[in-house]
Structure formats: C-alpha cells, structure tokens
Amino acid sequence: MRKSPYDVVIVGGGHNALVAAAYLARAGKSVQVLEKLPHVGGAAVSAEAFPGVPVRLSRYSYLVSLLPDQIIRELGLKISLRSRAVSSYTPAGDDGLLVERDAGAATVSSFRSLTGSDAEFGAWTAWYGELADLARVLAPTLLGPLPSREQLRELVVKATSERLWQDLFEQPLGAAIEERFADDVVRGVVATDGLIGTHTSLADAGLAANRCFLYHVIGNATGEWRVPAGGMGAVTAELERVALAAGARITTSATVRRIDADGQDAEITYVVGETEHTMAARQVLSGVAPSVLSELRGLPPAESAPGCQLKMNMVLTRLPKLRSGIDPKLAFAGTFHLDESYTQLESAYADSAAGRIPSPLPGEMYCHTLSDPSILAPELAAAGWHTMTLFGLHLPAGLFRGRNTELRDELAEGYLAGLNEYLAEPIESCLATDESGKPCVEARTPLDLADSLGLPAGNIFHGELAWPFADNADDPWGVRTDVPNVLLCGAGARRGGGVSGLGGHNAAMAVLGR
How far apart are CA 135 and CA 138, in angstroms? Predict the structure, then answer.
C-alpha cells in the first residue's frame, strides 16, 4: 500500500466520529473525516422540517443522557443541557401519574391517588435510589478500559446490593419489575426505559431489555435525560467546531465505496460527485454500523437487529388541554407516556412479533420548547407555539416492508387518535400548518432511517446493545474488529448507542494507547 498521509481516516461523520476526530487531532494526529451526507452529525441534527415554518427540530435524536460532562469539559464544548422539571406524566384513571424530576409532594399525592396507598411510591423510591447508586459507580467506567464481568459485579454489589445485580444482569427485567411493583401503570413507566429502540419482551431470557434499561438509567452518573439547548444540531455544531479547531479535516458528500486494510496500512476508496478518490491511512475508524463496515470491506454483512420505532415531529400553535385537567405545561414537559402500561407494552410486543400492528399503539412524547424555546423563531415563541416529539415503540422494520408509505401514514393517524383519547380537544386543532396549508406532522419509520441515515434496518443503536464489561481481554476499549487497524467508533462499539460520544472517545483512547 502507498505511504500513509493520514494517521487516521474516520468513515462516517456522526457525533461519535466528531468526538474521536477532536480527541485525536488534539493529540497531534492527522485526521480526515469522510461523511456521505452534505452535513455532519448523523442522527444528531436539527432541521426546519416544514416549509415556511421557522422551527429547528431535533429531527431524529432528541434528548441527551449518556454524554459525560468529562467529554464536554475535555473538548471545551460550549453547549447547554437543560433539566426538565417533570420526569414523566402518564394519563390513567381520573388524574394520571405525575412524577417530578425531584419527587416531592405532588408525586407522592399522584402515586397515592392512582394506587390507593403509598406502597408503590415507597417501592419506586427504593428502586430508583439503588439505580442512582448504580449510576454513580458505573458511569465512570464507561470512559475507561472495560472491566471484566466479575469486576463489574463486585463494583455493583458493593455500591448497591446483590439483589440489584440479579435484577439487572441475571434475570429478565420484567421479573424484577413484577417483583418490586404491583400497579400495572407504574410497572409500565419503569419498563419503557428497557424498550426504547429495542424490540423484545420484558420476559425474554436474552436480557435485551436489561441492557437497554441499563444504558438509559446510568448516563453521566445521574441517568437524567436532558434537553440540548438550541436543539441537537447545536451539539453537533460544537463538536464540528472543536474538531476543526484541533486540525481535523472534514469532507462531506463523500461516499465511501471500499476499505482495504492489512493491519498495518489501509486504503479508503470514496466518491465525491462523480470523481473517485483513494486515500491512505495508518488507522481507520468506523462510525458506520458494523454491518455496513463489513460490506465496505467486501465481507458478508454482519447480522443486525432491525429498528423498531416510529419517530414523529409536530409543530403546534398551542398545547392541547387534557381531560384530566392537568396543566399541559406539566404533562408534556417530561415524558408523556401514551398507552404504556406494563400489560399494554407486552401486548404490543406480542402483536408486532406476530406481524400485527399493535393496538393500542404505545409511545412517549415530550415538548422540547417547554424547556428550550430557542428552537422557535422569536415571533412563534411569543405567540405560544410549541414542538411535540413522539417516539413509538414495538414497530419493527419488517412491518413496513412493501408498505412503508401507507403504514407510516396509518400509524401517524393512529397515534394522533390515541392521544386524542386523553385530550379535551383534538390535537388536530392545535397543529400548525406549513406554507402550503399542510399540517405540521412528520413521521419517520425504520425504513426511512435506513434510507436517509444509512442505519441498517433503521436500528438507532447500529445493532444489539452489549453489556459494559469485557468479553475479550484483547479488546480493552470495546472497539476492535478482526483487523488491528480498523476500529469501531460509532454506536456499534461496545458501550455505544444514544448521543453519548462514548464510542468516539473510547476509539480515540485505543488509538492513542491510553
């Protein structure tokens, strides 16, 4: 192979790739990022989705939990991640279940009203108290070499209990939820963190829900899901800024066609416009999914779990009133659980696993602009406009094959109808319209994500999530492939998934030998 002009070429320009580029360039490495889209950021982007409506939506990824303050501090990122006053609201019974971020009297009263006693709130406090202890000891390990399973077990048990280790690492998540909680709605609120982007039963012995749950509750040592001020695009813009300032080069609209690597050197063939180029490097970092990387290397594509969600974006001229009478500024400030009781979640999985559309449709919503109105044009913010995001569960890619457009529209209507069951006025009466008079509702299926972002079957995690401990002592950072100079730096790396920067950070540390 030719003499390598670059120390590192990064294939894909998602947020993890930018994190890796920034760390490596700051360490003195020559770095080139190649991104096929006209912009960097992957799923962590903002966009004006509706013609004539000046609102910059976080179009795909929309909340931040796993991005450590350490990465923000070390890279000098000028971003603001805002806390939501409300953790969640679930319409049920006469009032519904309101959970404040810092549980106080309103939360206690809400649990009592829903369940008839204080027992469930006591169980809730005990469970999330242990999870907070878990987050404090487990989150720091995500930025270091992988511990062994036994080392992690010792850390978890010492900080929490043997029971919590069993609940999260040894038995299906559903078993723990059923043992600890009695109310179906409360069980469902707990369970949803194990199902975001993961198509599985809570009783499945493969523990996919456990791994998903774990990453959703330990982020940044608190597990708190925060709102990126300015939208997700503001996070990407800062990562791009610091990577370029450190000396990294970024080329967009560059479609990589092939990667050849022998363990010492590599060649990357890519196309810009109609011109093919070949670039040499000592090291290749892959920000694309492992199955895509396999294809670029001329290997059989690795199996990849399909995506299983519907993402909807909406712009409203006002927040809708709810039948329960709760202030919509409370109900939608956190996660609004829509038909997500434990029974409904398991029923939805059974339906979708059998090839049927779930009924009712489980999903969760939140209003970005209640925490951060800056994504609205000033005149819209002054007029009381808002955005609404919905994330639908248990909708695997296979359901959409051969009928993507038809089913996308059907599900969008279905979710609006499901929401209307809990509203005092139809959501349609609150929807803004674009310059052509169309309602401001946008839906994206797994197949849409595959088409627009290159995510295999629309999987937002690039594949199945893995435990945050080592299976292989030869892969201390969880980023290796079968070729020593090709490493994973995206969501498909061990400890990847979500807007975290972990894959990028850990790949950079592996390259630097730290």
Answer: 5
Give the span between the Cα atoms of 229 and 359, in whole angstroms: 35
Cβ atoms of 171 and 194 within 8 Å: the answer is: no
Order of strands across the sheet that contains 97-100: 97-100, 86-90, 335-338, 363-366, 386-392, 310-316, 441-444
pLDDT over 70 (residue 275): yes
Whether 313 and 202 have beta carbons less than 8 Å apart is answered as no
Residues near 105 by Cβ (< 8 Å), separated by ≥ 6?
A: none
Q: List residues bridging with 98 in a β-sheet.
A: 89
Residues 253/31, Cβ–Cβ less than 8 Å: no
User: Residue 136 belongs to what H/E stretch?
Assistant: helix 119-138
Distance from C-alpha of 75 to C-alpha of 87, rounded to nearest angstrom: 29
| Residue 485 to residue 252: CA distance in whole angstroms | 23
- Tokens representing 11 are 């294939």
Measure CA 237 to chain center: 18
Q: What are the two backbone dihedrals, phi and then psi, of residue 66, each rounded to the nearest 5 degrees?
A: -85, -10
Does the pTM exceed 0.70? Answer: yes
Q: Which residues pair with 233 in a beta bridge?
A: none
Helix (H) or strand (E) holding 251: strand 249-251
Under a CB-based contact definition with an 8 Å cutoff, are residues 46 and 234 in contact? yes
Model pLDDT, residue 209: 98
Q: How many residues appear in the chain?
A: 514
Rg (CA), the chain: 22
Strand residues in 287-385 grouped as ranges (E): 310-316, 335-338, 363-366
Here the tokens at position 253 are 């609209």
Q: Do the beta carbons of residue 32 and residue 425 sit within 8 Å?
A: no
Q: In Å, what is the CA distance from 136 to each residue of 103, 218, 369? A: 19, 8, 30
CA distance 175 to 167: 8
Q: Each residue of 135-177: pLDDT tens digit?
A: 999 999 999 999 999 999 999 999 999 999 999 999 999 999 9
Tell me the per-residue pLDDT of 441-450, one tens digit each, with 9 for 90 and over: 999 999 999 9
How would you class 140 by CB atoms within 10 Å of its CB: exposed for 0-12, middle for 13-18, buried for 19 or more?
middle
Q: For strand 386-392 and strand 310-316, is the pairing parallel, antiparallel, or unpaired?
A: antiparallel
Instruction: Write out pLDDT tens, residues 353-409.
Output: 999 999 999 999 999 999 999 999 999 999 999 999 999 999 999 999 999 999 999
